[in-house]
């Protein structure tokens, strides 16, 4: 049913209503109205709606409810700032106060109903915005901002008050920013700066201040959305909106908590489709919610692990600090797409070049060795005894004359070089002044990225303040680390978005035949036995060993003959998660007598432990291969997640796993394997044959299909071990564990 809760995804009732009626707001899906066909197999939306926020940031008219001009009152300062902002954006401002005739000489109205015109935006300077919401709805106000605090940030009582506010807003039809927000949306932005801009989204206003002040360094900002407690408008809404703005070159986010994981991924997907980079600092931890910890998969996927994987999966660049946020977003906003992914390091000191090159290589940047011909060319201007292979060391003196520019141009002319980085560890005029100017001049003549690290702690030098910061083509940093982080993000972003294919476009819309088979096997609220869990896998075409479930020693012997010796015997019961620890697994049985003895021993242990069995499994023994784990768990934000990692005993020791949020395609499944520290085991080590990676990827994709289709019914799935056989021989699920919701 549309508008209901699907697993852990709660649909916005307003959006659910319009979907149920067969439409979404204009531009919801690539500029058109969306229909119910734009839902995935679980009824979740596949595309991000784009709220029309033009009238929020550039309203024609504004009402300030609670306006004041009384000195010493907090509302007075806010009113004064809003009047100045309204003048800048060309909006008509109407103060609203029940006892004032005018505010700062502007006619004041006793209530919203008395306003002389319909307003686009109402700014609420009242302690309790709830009573005002219905008045705004009656007057068809489109947007409101609530500064009031004392809501979800204060505890349970405040959270309940915020929920009441959110419900009132949803019924009203207006869109609300806040509560517990601030004036950042109404800051004064410099209008003399050109080029692509950064759009800023913060849940804490002060944390966006470093990015905002980058305007003083010549970096353009276009918007600031301080989302506060996100009772209605959230980070995802602003990402979707900013991704469509032609002036926005990058979106910088400071996120303390995500309101809706699905909405965030849809917004990130929209930005990726448009090629707009999203850079985010994400702090805190999501609530993992109640989950059974019996499976290995559940132990492997912590909440922040899922957030990190989801961001990476949809191209969101996660950074750790505000300094990285400002430097990375500034570079991504302003730099042209790379012509090549090679990085050349150029310095006047061999030590500086070697140090930077070590750090860059360790971070994954590619520093190609320059060709012999290019090195010969560079040695026209650089002494022969200096290294010019990359890093390029000029020894210092060529910087001070005509040779300096020749060297820079020659490096940039190399087809393998897409980025030139020049670390200047300290000022040494006049050579540093000449070097900075040559780099700026060269940057103006090339479509390749030129970066400078100005290492002086002072930062008042003309070469830095005037020459480097005065250039919109040179990316200037103060630390090696921030430069490397930003350049890596720049290259990764363009790799990711070049030919980007949205996983939502390929997500299944209708259930598969496997789904109908699997539904009959589900037992709501129960844990499935290994035998039942393997039937679930079979329904989705995942290979399991030849096996039979038996309830007598004689039947076990007959089953062993049919399965083929040697065999494995295991107790099978709905309450068994870890059979090995209880001694309920016997391997390598080669005769009828061993099978009979094993049957008696397994049933005796089960009786002693008080475990109810549905029988004993007699299984084909599969020995050769790499043991992996593949599973499904539920995250409180993102819903079903798929995990793959090293399995068997290694899962407990190494905890080496990768996570993705469905839907995802084959490329992401392969990328999961590349993230594993033990990836080399799949390629074959110590003479072992390479594993059947294609079969492993196919299992991951089939498990993903299970997660999508059974998301409301499957709480947890654990295949461990999944034995990945040598190349061309497939993969076999030797054990399985499942819990139904």
Q: Characterize the biggest β-sheet.
A: 7 strands, antiparallel
Task: Kindly state the percentage of residues in helix.
Answer: 25-40%
Radius of gyration (Å):
31 Å
- By DSSP (H or I, 4+ residues per run), the number of helices equals 25
Oligomeric grouping of the chains: single chain
N→C terminal distance: 18 Å
Strand content: 15-25%
Features:
single chain; seven-stranded antiparallel β-sheet; five-stranded parallel β-sheet; 25 helices; 30 strands; flat; Acetate--CoA ligase family protein
Architecture overview:
- The chain is built from 25 helices and 30 strands.
- It has 741 residues and is an alpha/beta fold.
- The strands form seven sheets. Strands 20, 25, 26, 27, 28, 29 and 30 form a seven-stranded antiparallel β-sheet that branches.
- Strand 5 (102-103) and strand 6 form a beta hairpin.
Compact summary:
One of its GO terms (molecular function) is ligase activity. The chain has 741 residues and is α/β, with parallel strands linked by helices.
Please outline the helices and strands:
Layout: E1 5-6, E2 9-10, H1 13-20, H2 54-57, E3 61-65, H3 74-89, E4 92-96, E5 102-103, E6 106-107, E7 121-124, H4 130-138, E8 143-146, H5 156-172, E9 175-177, E10 197-202, H6 209-212, E11 221-226, H7 235-243, E12 248-255, H8 261-274, E13 278-282, H9 296-300, H10 303-313, E14 317-319, H11 322-334, E15 342-347, H12 350-362, H13 372-378, E16 392-393, H14 403-412, E17 417-424, H15 431-444, E18 449-454, H16 462-468, E19 474-477, H17 480-497, H18 513-519, E20 527-528, H19 530-539, E21 547-550, H20 553-563, E22 567-572, E23 585-589, H21 592-609, E24 615-620, E25 626-635, E26 639-646, H22 650-654, E27 657-660, H23 666-674, H24 679-683, H25 693-709, E28 714-724, E29 731-733, E30 736-740
Parallel strand pairs: 3-4, 3-7, 7-8, 8-9, 10-11, 10-12, 12-13, 13-14, 15-16, 15-17, 17-18, 18-19
Antiparallel strand pairs: 1-2, 5-6, 20-30, 21-24, 22-23, 22-24, 25-26, 25-28, 26-27, 28-29, 28-30
Helix pairs in contact: 4-5, 7-8, 11-17, 14-15, 15-16, 18-19, 20-21
């Amino acid at each position: 049913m549309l508008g209901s809760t699907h697993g852990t995804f709660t649909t916005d009732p307003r959006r659910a209503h319009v979907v149920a009626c067969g439409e979404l707001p204009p531009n919801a899906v690539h500029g058109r109205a969306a229909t119910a066909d734009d839902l995935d197999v679980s009824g979740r939306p596949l595309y991000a709606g784009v709220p029309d926020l033009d009238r929020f940031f550039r309203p024609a008219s504004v009402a300030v409810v609670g306006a004041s001009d009384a000195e010493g009152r907090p509302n007075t300062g806010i009113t004064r700032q809003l009047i100045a902002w309204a003048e800048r954006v060309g909006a008509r401002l109407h103060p609203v106060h029940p006892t004032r005739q005018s505010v700062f000489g502007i006619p004041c109205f006793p209530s919203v109903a008395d306003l002389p015109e319909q307003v686009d935006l109402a700014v609420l300077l009242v302690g309790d915005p709830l009573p005002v919401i219905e008045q705004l709805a009656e007057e068809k106000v489109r947007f409101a901002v609530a500064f009031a605090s004392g809501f979800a940030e204060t505890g349970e009582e405040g959270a309940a008050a915020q929920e009441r506010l959110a419900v009132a807003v949803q019924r009203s039809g207006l869109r609300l920013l806040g509560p517990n927000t601030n004036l950042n949306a109404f800051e004064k932005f410099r209008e003399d700066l050109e080029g692509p801009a950064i759009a800023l989204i913060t849940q804490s206003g002060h944390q966006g201040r470093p990015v905002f002040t980058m305007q003083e360094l010549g970096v353009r900002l276009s918007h600031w959305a301080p989302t506060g407690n996100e009772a209605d408008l959230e980070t995802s809404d602003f990402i979707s909106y900013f991704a469509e703005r032609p002036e926005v070159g990058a979106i910088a986010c400071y996120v303390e908590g995500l309101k809706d994981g699905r909405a965030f991924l849809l917004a990130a997907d929209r930005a990726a489709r448009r090629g707009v980079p999203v850079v985010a600092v994400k702090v805190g931890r999501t609530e993992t919610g109640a989950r059974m910890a019996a499976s290995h998969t559940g132990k492997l996927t912590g909440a922040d692990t899922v957030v990190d994987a989801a961001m990476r999966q949809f191209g969101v660049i996660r950074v750790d600090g505000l300094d990285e946020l400002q430097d990375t977003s500034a570079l991504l906003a302003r730099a042209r797409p790379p012509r090549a992914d090679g990085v050349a390091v150029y310095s006047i000191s061999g030590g500086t070049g070697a140090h930077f090159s070590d750090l860059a290589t360790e971070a994954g940047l590619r520093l190609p060795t320059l060709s012999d011909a290019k090195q010969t060319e560079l040695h026209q201007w650089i002494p022969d005894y200096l290294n010019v292979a990359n890093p390029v060391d000029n020894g210092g003196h060529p910087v001070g004359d005509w040779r300096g520019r020749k060297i820079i141009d020659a490096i940039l002319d190399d087809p393998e070089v897409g980025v030139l980085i020049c670390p200047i560890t300290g000022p040494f005029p006049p050579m540093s002044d000449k070097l900075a100017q040559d780099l700026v001049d060269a940057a103006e003549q090339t479509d390749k990225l030129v970066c400078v690290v100005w290492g002086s702690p002072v930062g008042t030098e003309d070469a830095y303040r005037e020459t480097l910061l005065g250039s919109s083509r040179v990316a200037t940093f103060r630390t090696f680390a921030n430069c490397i982080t930003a350049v890596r993000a720049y290259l990764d972003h363009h790799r990711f978005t070049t030919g980007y294919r949205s996983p939502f476009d390929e997500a299944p819309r209708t259930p598969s035949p496997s789904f109908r088979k699997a539904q009959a096997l589900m037992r709501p609220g129960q844990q499935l036995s290994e035998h039942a869990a393997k039937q679930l896998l079979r329904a989705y075409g995942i290979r399991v060993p030849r096996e039979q479930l038996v309830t007598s020693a004689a039947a076990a012997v007959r089953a062993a003959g049919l399965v083929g010796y040697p065999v494995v015997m295991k107790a099978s019961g709905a309450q068994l998660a870890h059979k090995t620890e209880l001694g309920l697994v016997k391997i390598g049985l080669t005769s009828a007598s061993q099978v009979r003895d094993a049957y008696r021993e397994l049933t005796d242990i089960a009786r002693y432990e008080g475990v109810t069995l549905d029988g004993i499994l007699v299984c084909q023994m599969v020995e050769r291969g790499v043991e992996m784990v593949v599973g499904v768990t539920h995250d409180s934000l993102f819903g079903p997640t798929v995990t793959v990692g090293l399995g068997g005993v290694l899962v407990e020791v190494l905890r080496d796993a990768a996570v993705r949020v469905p839907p995802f395609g084959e490329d992401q499944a392969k990328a999961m394997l590349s993230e594993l520290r033990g990836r080399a085991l799949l390629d074959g080590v110590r003479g072992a044959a390479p594993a059947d990676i294609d079969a492993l990827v196919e299992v991951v994709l089939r498990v993903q299909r299970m997660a999508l289709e059974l998301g409301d019914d499957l709480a947890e799935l654990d295949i461990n071990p999944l034995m990945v056989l040598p190349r061309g021989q497939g993969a076999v699920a030797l054990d399985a564990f499942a819990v139904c919701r």
